[in-house]
Amino acid sequence: MAPIPRPQRSTRRRLLTVADAVDHLLRVEELKAGQPRNVDRCVFALKAALNSFVTYSPQGFRYYDSRRVLIPGVSVDLGTVVVSSNVATPSVAPTWPSWVAYGHLHAGKQSFAILSTDATTATMDNMPDGTYTDVKLDQIFIPLPDDFRRRGSLSDGDDYIPIVDVPAGILQSWQDYYDWVRSAASPRVFAAISGDQRFQGELLLAIWPPYAEAAKLSLFYERYPGRIDYNRAGTGQATTSSTTVTAPASTFVDEHVGATINFSNGTSADWTSPLADPTTFLAQRVITAVASGTTATIDAALTDDIGGAGNTFYISDILDVMPGPMTDAFLRLAEYELTRASKSDKAPVKFMEFRQQLEIAMTDDSRYRDSVDDGPFAWSTSFGIGSVTGRPDL
């Protein structure tokens, strides 16, 4: 007898959203969904878990590894510059580059930070009055990505010439006292992760020497998980036409780009409430653009457009966690954060459950198909609940 073929379901993965995780916490902790305070507590626990998740396994998985190409500005020759009361005026009206806020004026072995610019002048940070010759505008700070957490390798150019790490204080002294530019004949570059009082809350890559020619830097880094701001946003009903969604006035804002929009299969208002009936789910899509408060673009059309009066929907941020066992580990951590915040006696047990699930998730993340005993994070049962080789036990 020939086997009966199994019908194929959609291969589109349903993304874990803040709304899904809130529902999970409400169910597990048996909290009343109709009380907004309980929902707020769940969202608070999710944010705490997301902020700390990577720190529990800094070497355990590579889901948050990222690469970014940074383009350093090329040195600009300003010629003669006259400074009076911290206002620098080049002899020839300059065309300030886009990175000028991250630049310094270098005159010989002296370096001065730029505070602001207008069409023809620059306001300087404590630059003595006088006439300076052979002045160069150099970019010595490159802003790091907003989600930057920890630096990996950093290399210079297509040949991936390694960049040498030095302490920020030493780099600053070099910037102040050495007249030197990076060129093909002198390729070595030094760098440090730094901050600057002009850019509060922003991490910068300080480099020296500045670049005399076009170049690019290849930065590998560990990023923070994405922010979560929206649980169940949106009211009323929406229609679709291919990849265009139309909703009631003032539904969409620019910050919804990257979030999911989740459609029910009807007009029930319960769909926008916690613990909605899962059987009313129709489809999930990702918002890729917002044209107005009533119109947005989604990443793929629905199988059948939603017409008529429309279906109920809600907008919810994606939880930036790897699918599978790592998601289970994250939810265990969120359960712990919820019980810890409420000072529950269950908190220690919840933390142990998280540890156990994280061990399993890290083993799964090894990506070695044939044996869980292979790879950089091989599984071991030598400690009872399991341990991951190559890192301290949690």
What does this molecule look like?
It is a single chain. With about 400 residues, the chain is an alpha+beta fold. It has 3 domains: about 30-65 and about 320-394, no CATH class; about 65-225, no CATH class; about 230-315, Elongation Factor Tu (Ef-tu), domain 3 (Beta Barrel). It has 5 helices and 22 strands. The chain has helices at about 20-30, 35-50, 170-175, 325-340, 345-365, and strands at about 65-70, 75-85, 85-90, 105, 110-115, 120-125, 130-140, 140-145, 150-155, 160, 165, 190-195, 205-210, 215-225, 235-240, 245, 260-265, 280-290, 295-300, 310-315, 380, 385-390. Strands 2-3-6-5-4-7 form a 6-stranded antiparallel barrel. A 6-stranded antiparallel beta barrel has the order 15-16-19-18-17-20. A 4-stranded antiparallel sheet has the order 1-14-9-10, with no helix packed on it. Strand 5 and strand 6 form a beta hairpin. It starts with 17 loop residues before the first helix and ends in a 6-residue tail after the last strand. About 30% of the residues are buried.
